[in-house]
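Example 4.3 (complexes with small molecules)
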Amino acid sequence: MASRKRTLLKVIVLGDSGVGKTSLMNQYVNKKFSQQYKATIGADFLTKELLIDEKLVTLQIWDTAGQERFQSLGGAFYRGADCCVLVYDVNVGRTFETMDNWHDEFLKHASPSDPTKFPFILLGNKVDVDDGNSRAISEKKANDWCVSRSNIPYFETSAKNDYNVDDAFHSVAKIALHHE
Ligand code: GTP
Ligand code: MG
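Answer. The structure with magnesium ion bound is encoded below.
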């Protein structure tokens, strides 16, 4: 029987409080969604196994606290990450304006060997919210930012409707594996 070496990929999910980081992970790993908001305190991870190019990989996805007062661990555990997932809420402009900050803070603490080549991915979450004019950040604006940050892949998602969640994390696994 062919033996398969298992690869562990460490992924860090960052973004402002309330954008849906925990919800996206919970939808992806447990296929569950809750309307109720419960702030993440500190950091914790979920794991998911998947096959990428016939390679068995374990994604270790770290959920983090968006609220500053709950960021007890600092950024020390960013070290050794293979991919950083940045999340904002397409309906709340300021959650997009902080993306530069999260991006730069991540690189500062993770200190990867080549910061210019470190893989990020951007998720614009809560695209299901559609009450006519709730959208604050256009797809084009998000894409332009991604291009300016050395072509970060961009996905629009809904943790609530399970829209694009699998595809987004599959892409995370692929680029993390490529980097690892
Ligand atoms: P912190 O842990 O404080 O950093 O927040 P978070 O980014 O983990 O946000 P969380 O996943 O807890 O979601 C915040 C709120 O938004 C919750 O009430 C969720 O039910 C809701 N929510 C998350 N994702 C979606 C989505 O795709 N659509 C809608 N409509 N609501 C969502
Ligand atoms: Mg959370």
